[in-house]
Amino acid sequence: MSKQSQRKAYGETLVELGHENEKIVVLEADLGKSTMSILFQQEFPERYFEMGIAEQNMTSFAAGLALSGKIAFTNSFAVFSTGRSYDQIRQSICTAKLNVKINGSSAGLSDFGDGATHQAIEDISIMRSLPNMSVFVPMDATEARKIVRAAVEHDGPVYIRISRSDLEDHFPEDGEFKVGKPYVLREGTDIVMFACGIMVSKALSAAQILEKEGISVKVVNVSSLKPLDESAIRNLAKGVKGIITAEEHSVIGGLTSAITYILRGQGTPIEPVAVMDTFGQSGFNHDELLEYYGLTDTAIVDTVQRILKQQVDDLKIMEDNKL
Questions:
Q1: What mean pLDDT do residues 252-270 have?
Q2: Domain, as residue range, for 254
Q3: Coil, strand or helix: which one is 303?
C-alpha cells in the first residue's frame, strides 16, 4: 500500500486554490516548513502572513481578515492552533461564524519526538464543542486535498486535522468528499467499525484479519465529525452484533463520543479503540506510540473478539438460567 504526506498535500492544495481564488490568505505561526504552508508563501508572498510564535495574535488577525472578505487559513501544530488560541477561536471566530479555516498539523501522537506538550489528543473534542465549528479529519493525503477544497467552499469556521506521518492511500482519486457524510470502505454484517484519520487503515487491516476467522466487518470512514449525518450512522449500525470506534484521540469528546451519542439507547455493544484519559509521551517513532497506546489493528481485532465472546457468554448464561 502506497503512502503520501498529508502535510504536503495540504500545502500543495493551498497553492492550487490560491491560483483559483484571490480571496484566500494564509497565516503561519513560525512552523511553515512543517505545516507546509511555506509552499503558499513561495507562490503568494503578498498573501502570506508570518505571525511568529503568537498563535493568539494570528487567530485574531485571521478574524479581521475574514471580516474584510478574505478566506483565512491559520496554521500551527494542532495542540497550539486549538489550545493556545481557544479564546480567540471561540470569541472572535465562532460566535460571529467567520470564514476562518484552522489547520491543526502534526495532530494526535504523530509528533512523536516532542512528547505530551506537542501531541494533540484532545483537539477534536475542543473544536467539536464549539458552536458553528465544522471538524474534518482526513484519512489520507487524497482526502486531505478534497477536504481543503471543501473547506474553502464551506462558509464558516472549519478545523482540519492533519497528521505529521505519511498515511496509506485509501480514498479514491475520483471520490467526492461531502460534508457530514460517512463513507463505507468495506461492507460487513457482524461488526461495524467507525474510524477516522490514521485509524481507518488500521480498521481495514483488522477487517482483513477477522475475515480469515469468519467474522464479517464493515469499515466506515468518518472524516466529517461535525456535522455528521446521524441517520446515516444509525442505518450503518443496524443489524450488527457490535460497534467499534477507532481514533487517534482521547476517548473523551472525539469520534467515540459522537458515535455513542448518536447510537444512544440502541442496545448494541459499543467499544472504543482510542487513547484513554492520559497524555502522550515521547517515542522513537509514531508506530511505537500507536503500539503503546493500543491504536493498532491487533488491538481492534482483540476488541472485536472480546465483544463477540461476551455475547456468546451472555447467551450461555441466559440458557443456563432457563434450565
A1: 96
A2: 183-315
A3: helix
**The dihedral of CA 258, 261, 263, 268: what is its sign?**
positive
User: What's the domain count of the chain?
Assistant: 2
- b/e sequence 133-164, b meaning 16+ C-beta within 10 Å: bbbbbbbbbbbbbbbbebbbebebbbbbbbbb
User: pLDDT tens digits for 93-149?
Assistant: 999 999 999 999 999 999 999 999 999 999 999 999 999 999 999 999 999 999 999
Only one residue has cell 461535525, namely 226
CA–CA distance, 191 with 246 (Å, rounded to integer): 13
| Stretch 67-90: mean pLDDT | 98
Q: Has residue 50 been placed in a domain?
A: yes
pTM of the model: 0.95
Distance between CA atoms of residues 197 and 119, nearest Å: 15
The yes-or-no answer on residue 55 being catalytic is: yes
Strands annotated E in the chain: 3-5, 24-28, 48-50, 71-77, 100-105, 134-136, 158-161, 166-168, 183-186, 191-195, 217-221, 224-226, 242-250, 270-275
DSSP-H helix ranges across 47-122: 55-67, 78, 86-88
State the greatest distance between any 2 C-alpha atoms of the chain, in Å, as a whole number.
80
- CATH code, 306: 3.40.50.920
- Rounded to whole angstroms, what are the CA distances from 260 to 113, 127, 187, 235, 264? 32, 18, 21, 14, 6
The angle that helices 297-322 and 199-211 make with each other, rounded to 10 degrees, is 50
Cα–Cα distance measured from residue 303 to residue 310, given in angstroms and rounded to the nearest whole number: 11
Concatenate the DSSP letters of all residues of 232-266 into one string. HHHHHTTT-SEEEEEEEEESSSSHHHHHHHHTTTS
Catalytic option among 12, 28, 55, 271: 55
Instruction: Let me know whether 102 and 158 are in one domain.
Output: yes
All three cell numbers of 5: 504526506
CB of 204 closer than 8 Å to CB of 263: no
The cell numbers describing 105, all together, are: 498539523
106 and 218 share one domain: no
